[in-house]
Amino acid sequence: MSEPRRHDSEVIAAQVTGKLVNRDLSATDTETYRRWNAILFPEQAERWAALAQSLPDLAELLLVRAIMLSPGDFRFHFNLSNRLLSAGRQKEARQCLDRVMLLSPSFSASYGNRAAISPDACRRLQLQGRAWVCGGGLENGVSASERLIAAERYGSADEILSDVLAQSPLFSFAWRQKAILQHRRRNLRGARLDHCRAIISNPALSDSYLAAYVHFCDCRSFEAAGRMLDFAERITPAGLAIQVNRGSMLEAMGRPAEALWFARRSVLREPGIADINYNVGTVYGSLGKVDEALKFQERVSIIAPHMLGLKNNLAQALLKSGQYRRGFEAYEYRWYAESMEQPSIRTLHPHPSFDLPLWDGGQTQGSNILLWGEQGLGDEIWALGCLAMLEGRAERFDIEIDRRLVPLAQSAFPHFTFVARDVDSPFDCTKYDAQLPLQSLPHCLGRPDRPVEPGWGRPNAERLAEVRAKMTRERDVRVVGLGWRSVKPVSRWSFDLTLKCLAGLGALEDVLFMPVQYGMSEEDWASVSEMFGSERVLRPDFDVWYDIPALNDAVASMDAVVTAATMLVPLTISAGTPAVAVLNETQRDWRYLPGKKASPMLPGVLQLWPTDCGRQQDIAEALSTVLRSKRRFPIV
Questions:
Q1: Are 247 and 283 in contact (CB under 8 A)?
Q2: C-alpha to C-alpha distances, 230 to 100, 193, 223, 226, 237, nearest whole angstrom
Q3: Helices marked H in 22-134 — which ranges?
Q4: What is the pLDDT of residues 3-52, one digit of tens each?
């Protein structure tokens, strides 16, 4: 191409501009004319930025020149960030993108690129959400907030939802997500207000009523939850989601037989949906029908093998069916389950309590292993019985447990170090090589069939004689401990007994009764005294909730214990005292085998199900059988 003849600069500029409009120019011609364009108008930043497109080797310098001429134009900063990203210079690219976001807060591409190179996961989600909101996709912005809520990044989610609602104050989807966020933050009043706003914004949308149903159901306000389902059903008659949720509500209310009807209808309509099969299996499990529960939970694992949150109920079904090897393997996914029970204080997911790798059970000379208790007090007592599997190993073990259990455990296992759990103080993990929850020991060590060693906390003969003499006052009588209530925040209906069902025990001769039920009121004591006679009722001289070592010694000195499925059951195992566990039809604890008299997980415990103890004398007969036995553990 020939060089343009020298004329007046305006004439030449017009010719160059005209040439650049031609899309048929070759790359070489385009570069030449862009050079002339920049030379003729050196004070115009756009000309240098355009030339940067034709000279990739000099693009960075040319864009810097454009920025110097027009520092407030976000486009030049953005183009420079793209060049820096291509060169792998992420730190400088982040600085450029930060300037773009300041100069043009509504430019969505800058948030997307900044999110792609952000090292922080929370920041990435926040930036991606901003990109979606600025890009005009309000639904995408709400979806971003949903992911942030799932990651427990509530502040970032709140910012995105506030932006969305500022642009569209009547966006029902955003109000619904805001209500879910408020519920997660336990601002229940705010959650209800936002659910109302979501419904008012679009009263014809059934999803808003279903979201409100979840809120009320989780708050145990079943009457209000039922009304929400009724409203949703008017909008979507015979809707599958309504049918599924109605069954779930009935199951949560402790009415599994009614829940099963809805659950089975749902699975007939959609047999290939994992959540529906999961619900059916859960209801069967609540009814104690283990084989049916296992069938549906196995189906769930086939339909959705990667949905880890659904594997816990498969583990429960396997364990209740006595398939302990597979059951303990699946039980490792318990951290992913969305349970209505109070969660464990320490956890592995979603935010691990300790920054340590999991111990695989291999022999490692000189390693320091941190074991820690999980779930409730009874679960910790049961799991401490697994420590006998670690005797003689080369590793050093520290065990973090409930403060009340430390004296008992340290006395029983002097070669281990026990640490009182204190969640309010930072925990030093630097001296440990690995960690493991206590209830993972059976799977980790490959001993799932009978992991608990009974009698591990039994005091010596001298201490037993001392406590026994104090209880009986040297009389030739037998002592039976009583428990009938476990305070569970949600599923208390599956753990309680009525005191009247124990009335038949009064027919046994030469028996004293010691209630070791925590939280007893004077009214409770009066009821027990009236039932058995005050002269036959022993009152503990220690706090049965806080003084666990004294409770263990008292239980060890008894002839037997009759109790509901409370923490007394694992305590009788540690104390080496036989027990009669009076169970309800719905028993969620996997250690109890439905319909069986005994469980390998609970040595020395005679299980009485409703079919076995329909009358008061049935419980008395079971206790008589245990008392007549000469062995410490008649049931194995």
A1: yes
A2: 50, 20, 11, 6, 9
A3: 27-40, 45-54, 59-69, 74-86, 90-103, 108-116, 121-134
A4: 444 445 555 555 555 554 555 556 676 667 677 667 777 888 887 888 77
Q: How far apart are the first and last CA of the chain?
A: 99
Query: Can you tell me the distance from the alpha carbon of 249 to that of 127, in angstroms, rounded to the nearest whole number?
Result: 37
Rounded CA separation 176/442 (Å): 43
CA 471, 475, 478: angle at the middle one, nearest 5? 65
Between CA 433 and CA 427 the distance in angstroms is 14
Equal CATH topology for 167-172+182-336 and 368-444: no
- Residue 580 pairs in a beta bridge with 562, 606
> H-type helices in 432-502, by residue range?
441-444, 461-472
Rounded distance between C-alpha atoms, residue 374 and residue 361, angstroms: 19
Long-range (24+ apart) CB contacts under 8 A made by 320-324 are: 320/285, 320/290, 320/293, 320/590, 320/592, 320/593, 320/594, 321/290, 321/291, 321/294, 322/593, 322/600, 324/442, 324/448, 324/449, 324/600
Q: Residue 163 in contact with residue 131, Cβ under 8 Å?
A: no
Quote the Cα angle for 252-351-378, to 5°.
50
CATH of 368-444, one of 2.115.10.20, 3.30.70.20, 3.40.50.20, 2.60.120.260: 3.40.50.20
Residue 73's SS3 state is coil
Higher-confidence residue of 339 and 405: namely: 405
**What are the φ/ψ torsions at residue 165 (nearest 5 degrees)?**
-70, -25
Position 266: which residue type? S
Residue 340 phi, psi (nearest 5): -85, -10
d(CA 90, CA 512): 77
For the chain, how big is the Rg over CA atoms in Å?
Answer: 34
Q: In this predicted model, what pLDDT tens digit does every residue of 551-610 receive, in sequence order?
A: 999 999 999 999 999 999 999 999 999 999 998 877 888 999 988 999 999 999 999 987
State the Cα angle at 340 between 257 and 353, rounded to 5°: 150
CATH for 167-172+182-336, options being 3.40.50.10230, 3.40.50.1220, 3.40.50.720, 1.25.40.10: 1.25.40.10
Is beta strand 368-372 parallel, antiparallel or unpaired with respect to 434-437? parallel
Q: In this structure, how many other beta carbons lie within 10 angstroms of the beta carbon of residue 5?
A: 8
CA distances from 553 to 202, 210, 581, 612 (A): 63, 51, 20, 30
| Three-state DSSP class for residue 417 | strand
Estimate to the nearest angstrom the gap between the alpha carbon of 465 and the chain centroid. Answer: 45
Which helix (DSSP H) or strand (DSSP E) does residue 240 occupy?
helix 240-252
More confident residue, 531 or 124: 531
From CA 463, how far away is CA 467, in angstroms rounded?
Answer: 6
Angle at 450 between CA 302 and CA 610, to 5 degrees: 75
Edge-to-edge order in the sheet of strand 434-437: 417-420, 396-401, 368-372, 434-437
Q: How confident is the model over 598-626, as pLDDT tens digits? A: 999 999 999 998 765 556 778 888 888 88
Place of tokens 């050093």: 396
Q: For residue 608, what is the DSSP state? A: E
**pTM as predicted:** 0.72
Pairing mode, strands 434-437 and 478-483:
unpaired
The values of phi and psi at residue 437, to 5°, are: -65, 145
Structure tokens at 483: 């428990």
